[in-house]
Amino acid sequence: MTAKVLTITSGKGGVGKTTTVANLAVAFASKNQKVVCIDGDIGLRNLDVILGLENRIVYDIVDIVEGRCRTRQAMIRDKRFPDLFLIPAAQTRDKNAVSPSDMVRLCNELREEFDWIIIDSPAGIERGFKNSIAPADIVAIVTNPEMSAVRDADRVIGIIEAEEKKPPYLIINRIKPSMVDKGNMLSVDDIYELLRIEVIGVIPEDENVLIASNKGVPLAIDAKTRSGMAFRNIARRFVGEEVPFLELKETNFWNKLNIFGQKD
Amino acid sequence: MKLIDLFSKPKSVRSAKDRLRLVLINDRINISPATISDLKDELIAVISKYVDIDPQRVQVQIDSDGRTQKLVADIPIRSNTKKR
């Protein structure tokens, strides 16, 4: 088994990186893939909360790097999925406690044991971001259909290109088809036209995301919600399946409804 | 562009796209409009030494081709039909 290291980053904060990591992790795990998530946001950890594992942290990534525990001891096993683990970030340290080469070393140690290592990058383009992309085989950038998120995504794409990594993938989060139809929100095509990297997922705006984070149970744990399905589809595309973009069809459906509305 | 786009996109998306397009080009190449203007003036001076061009109609701008930016100069040559 040789894991692929998938880093989720964005430039701008608050676009849904941690939500994406948690949901992809659960989606991979429910396909019987062995997954470990690493929270790269030292000082502002949150992946533990989104996964509902916050009460089980004993050691964290800085403890591993500084030799206070073995890697295995800092890995929290998700009781819902025996093959899903979290390595939490330290909350009381800063980003300089870990270096890019520490991250490469840690991922290399984990590679043999897992199918996927998913790294939750912090916002920004500084140390925590550099730590997160250093070991990445695949980078996916999360953005929202919004000026500053698209602009920051472009900056991050530029930096990743300069690092001579493979071109990153794009995940467009929080699309509202009704606003797109009214011409008041950038569409998937608009964003693709501006950023020109492959879109691997489109997630509609969904109140259930907040409810899921309240509960600590990622949506992609089942296929009951559209956004949960969208996350599961991204995981399927990452393992090489051809999955159509359901959301776009839904957009067309709403589009038609609106036309009828205007005729009335 | 689909026909339906003509009707359904008259609103803020237009300005978002136009503004983002310019912002991204600026972020990617980091050349100020003043520098482009200087470049254009020098380009006109150099080319005029060899070819009879119309300085008023020269256009120099940054264009995007996928994720690559290119410098595009449109330099119309003055026709010499009058002289004949």
What does this entry look like structurally?
The complex is a heterodimer of chains A (264) and B (84). By secondary structure, chain A is α/β, with parallel strands linked by helices. Chain A has 12 helices and 8 strands. Chain A has helices at residues 17-29, 47-51, 61-65, 71-74, 100-111, 127-133, 147-162, 177-181, 188-195, 207-215, 226-238, 246-263, and strands at 4-9, 35-39, 76-77, 84-87, 116-120, 138-143, 169-175, 199-204. The longest helix of chain A is centred in the C-terminal third of the chain and has 18 residues, at 246-263. Chain A is globular and about 55 Å long. The termini of chain A are far apart. Residues 251-264 of chain A have low confidence and may be disordered. Chain B is of the alpha+beta class. Chain B is built from 3 helices and 2 strands. Chain B has a two-stranded antiparallel sheet with strand order 1-2. In chain B, 6% of the residues are buried. At the A-B interface, helix 7, helix 9 and helix 12 of A face helix 2 of B.
Low-pLDDT segments, ≥5 res of chain B: none
Give the SSE string of chain B: HHHEE
From the N-terminal CA to the C-terminal CA of chain B, the straight-line distance is 46 Å
Q: How would you sum up the global shape of chain A?
A: globular
Whole-number average pLDDT of chain A?
A: 93
Short summary:
By secondary structure, chain A is of the alpha/beta class. Chain A is 44% helix and 16% strand.
Observed structural traits:
heterodimer, A: 264 residues, alpha/beta, 12 helices, globular, disordered C terminus, B: 84 residues, two-stranded antiparallel sheet, 3 helices, 17% strand
Any chance you could write out the topology, listing elements then pairs?
The complex is a heterodimer of chains A (264) and B (84).
Chain A: E1 4-9, H1 17-29, E2 35-39, H2 47-51, H3 61-65, H4 71-74, E3 76-77, E4 84-87, H5 100-111, E5 116-120, H6 127-133, E6 138-143, H7 147-162, E7 169-175, H8 177-181, H9 188-195, E8 199-204, H10 207-215, H11 226-238, H12 246-263
Parallel strand pairs in A: 1-5, 1-6, 2-4, 2-5, 6-7, 7-8
Antiparallel strand pairs in A: 3-4
Chain B: H1 3-8, H2 12-29, H3 33-48, E1 59-65, E2 68-74
Antiparallel strand pairs in B: 1-2
